[in-house]
Amino acid sequence: MAEKNDKGQPGSRGHGSPTGTGGLLTPTCHETPKRRRFVEPQKFLPVVFVIVTIAGLWAIYAVLHCARLLQLGGWRGSGPIDEAMQSRGIWQTIVFHYCTALLLVCHVRSILVHPGEIPENDPQWEYLPQDGRSG
Q1: Rounded distance, CA 78 to CA 73, Å?
Q2: In a 3-state reduction of DSSP, which class is residue 72?
Q3: 82, 71 in Cβ contact below 8 A?
Q4: How many Å is the maximal CA-CA distance in the chain?
């Protein structure tokens, strides 16, 4: 006869695997239920603030600095194009966009990675209140 766990499911001895061995990829009996992420909209305010700040700084640097060095649009004078300034502008634009891409990748990864939780049933993380009175 097949054994049943606490919930009456056959074949599970309450250890997360059908055989009760608690394999590497099977959950253990101490696992907590999954909590949903990204359900509280007010927690997105800091994320939006950082994205707006990055976008604003990008726009200021790209338009006011890089476009002037590249001599694009209204930044181009009536005389000949300064080749040295344009070359410097190309390199600065490439390096700037590379660093900006790395920053955005890091920001997105920091948003998507779960921050972790305090382990349950671990004596090292157990809170032991201490009485402030000397005795």
Answers
A1: 11
A2: coil
A3: yes
A4: 93
Q: If we measure between CA atoms, which residue out of 95, 94, 105, 107 comes closest to residue 53?
A: 107
Which amino acid would we find at residue 106? C
Residue 61 CB neighbour total at 10 angstroms? 15
> In this predicted model, which residue has the larger pLDDT, 73 or 113?
113
* 32 band by pLDDT with thresholds 50, 70 and 90: low
Collapsing DSSP to helix, strand or coil, 95 comes out as helix
In angstroms, the Cα distances linking 111 to 6, 47, 50, 51, 103 are 37, 8, 11, 12, 12
E strands in the chain: none
What are phi and psi for residue 98, nearest 5 degrees? -65, -50
Q: Which amino acid is at 64?
A: L
